Amino acid sequence: MANSSLKLLCSSLNKLKINYIMQRQNSRYQPPRYRPPHWFVPKERVMTDEMLTQENRQFLEEVRQDKMNVQTALESPLSNSEPVATTQWDPFTRRVGLIARKIGNYPLWSKDGKRFQTTLLQVVDNHVIKYIPPEEFNPMVVKKPVWKEKKRLGALLVGSETIDPTIVTKEYCGLFDSVGMLPKRHLCRFMVSPHAALPTGTPLTATHFRVGDYVDVRAKTIDRGFQGVMKRWGFKGMPASHGVTKTHRRPGNIGAGGGKARVWPGTKMPGHMGNSWRVLRGVKILRINTKHNVLWVLGVGIPGETGAMCYMFDTVLPLRKHKTAPPFPTHLPTDDLPLEYYDESIHPFEEPTISFEED
User: Which of 34, 175, 201, 337 shows its CA 20 to 30 Å from the CA of 143?
Assistant: First the structure.
């Protein structure tokens, strides 16, 4: 009797062990783990009436405008610096990226008449805020594996869109006061090689990339809220007119049988859709406007709605990396740039499309 109970106990333990292993192997979908960046401080403050007179408000506005004009008029710190022999680009170098705003879609045509759908990304008022060397850079790693590039790469903080210092908190302004700049609306971290670091206050423009380059775009997807399986996972659903009344948009069997009756991890179920960080890799740049800092990238799959912010950086795909040296560490702003850059396959609008020869 004791032997039979012991065998029953061992078999039940083996079943639990097998179920646990299957659960770990079948957990394909990992829920998003949201975490604040390591420089996170409260940004929005409670707006109160400071009881200022109209003259004092005008005076503060003039001071703010003067500071913004001085900051935008500053030249790049790289323009007066001498080139260093060690700052040479190589295929393993990581450059800084850009913060861009998605402003819509637009068609382009190739020289043989083929039509392309593109997405317009505008680089708005990007400046380097701070450089964190590799020995001080400690990224917040969510997973357990060893951070292989922790001691090899540093980090550059890049800000976009200068805002009024009076609408943000004192702690958030302190991030920019230490480097002598006005606060930015958006702040992003880019991991860079130590010899690709940039001085504080360096402006970044759309010419940081070239036409024909491939970039990776990271942004938040559109927040869809709670959605069913047809909207969230693309289920077909049952016929709308013939069939059972209550199963037109239901998921159906979720595969809970054949063992322990429960919902297995990774099952496609209704739930929250969107508002997650996604990266679209290997997007080609077809056109660049230097006056308004606008880039035309191929495709309409950039995550986010119109007006959303996204992060652009050199692609990590091995077959689409730079074949020649890009502007390193970044492109210096000059006044003799052409207004438009086109890819060699794109037809410029100012050129004629059809030419007639006289008989």
Answer: 175
Give the architecture-level CATH label for domain 92-139+149-224+272-342: Beta Barrel (2.40)
pTM: 0.77
d(CA 332, CA 341): 16
Separation of alpha carbons 332 and 75, rounded Å: 9
C-alpha closest to that of 79 among 205, 160, 199, 208 = 199
User: What count of other Cβ atoms lies within 10 Å of the Cβ of residue 86?
Assistant: 7
Q: Running along the chain, 359 residues long, what does each successive block of 10 average in pLDDT?
A: 64 62 52 56 74 83 78 57 58 91 92 91 91 81 52 86 84 81 88 89 90 93 92 91 86 80 87 90 93 93 92 92 87 83 89 76
Rounded Cα distance between 45 and 156, Å, is 26
CA gap 214, 312 in Å, rounded:
10
* CA-CA-CA-CA torsion sign (343, 346, 303, 72): positive
- Which residues, 6 or more positions from 70, have their beta carbon under 8 angstroms from its beta carbon? none
